[in-house]
Design brief:
6-stranded antiparallel β-sheet, alpha+beta, disordered N terminus, single chain
Amino acid sequence: MVQGAKSFPQPECDAIDRDAPALVRDEASSAVVAARRFAEVAAELSDGIAVVRSGTLVWSNDRLVAFAGRRALQELQGGVFADLFKDTGRGLPEPSGPRFLECALRRADGEPRTVVCRLAWNDPDASVSVWVVEDVTHVRMLEAELLRLSRKLHQGSREVVSLTEKLRRERADREEILTVVSHELRTPVTIINGYDRLLLSEEVGPLNDEQRRFLQESAKACRRLDTFIGDLLEASRVRGDDAVLEVSFGSLREAIESVTSLVRPLLEERDLRIETEIPPEACRARFDRMRLEQILTNLIGNAIKYSPAGGLIEIATRMLPSDDPAERRLIEISVSDQGPGVSAEDRDRVFDAYVQIGECKRAGGLGLGLAVCKRLVEAHGGTIHVTGRRAGGSRFVFTLPAADEMEVA
């Protein structure tokens, strides 16, 4: 016998007269068998089952006993079925009421439980009804949590839309400011620089030493200001995700020599030397020639700025090893100097726009050169980072995709 079945109301077969007609005895026996089968099936269900007669609970399965926080059926049997529940505004389970009803379950320990009562069977003549009680507490909790998260997501979406619009306005404002800078500031700087060059040429008259020094300082200031403006415009215009590149395969040696030739006067002024190491297997790559020279100019320019007089700047390339022959190989390009170096905690921040660290603050500038380098390198599909050197100084390293064998040939 399944647990709980013993308490199911049995037909009083023992009271049946032994001399009663056989038909009566057969009907009583069938009722006992049906009752036992019902109890066995109900014991296996995940929902609570209650048999109610005239509003009184006469039997339930173990599941309903557990739902109600009782230890045995006897604690429920004989009580008013409706008293097990608390009206939450929709009424209590009654045969004359709705067949489907959600209400709160009164547990012995006071723990809140939400249940759904369904009228499964009703015999008005015998005042007997059968109820199915489903515990939906966890479901309702999940629904409430889902509603909360949905509202939170909706609020987050609204904030994203607001921030996107704010960013769009700020970008438009910035572009307008940069337009003003380009037209209203760069033009007079160019004019002043032009007059400086004219006067320094002495085509309009000779200069004494003091006048020449003043004009040279003025021209130097104009060049610095022109560089600041150029970096500011470049940082705004060039983004790693939308930079337009004209990529082709070419010689890294030619690009590096072009830049080193351009900065030769600065090297001579500081008594600096440049050494290059470009092996044949790491000479040709895929890049935008103008953008690569811009990257190298920034990196070599920084090396010149921070290297001590008489120092050495080293430029090297090497082919990086690859475990996947199907992937395009990368060439590493490095620019090393003997300057003060970059501390380990600042090596990521140094590539952020408008960030100046250590000696950079005293060297002037807007802190945009390395940010521009990072965006251009990433637009090529490469990466850039900085490390220290055992002998002191910094080593800036970036990668470019190598030319394949057909392109090299």
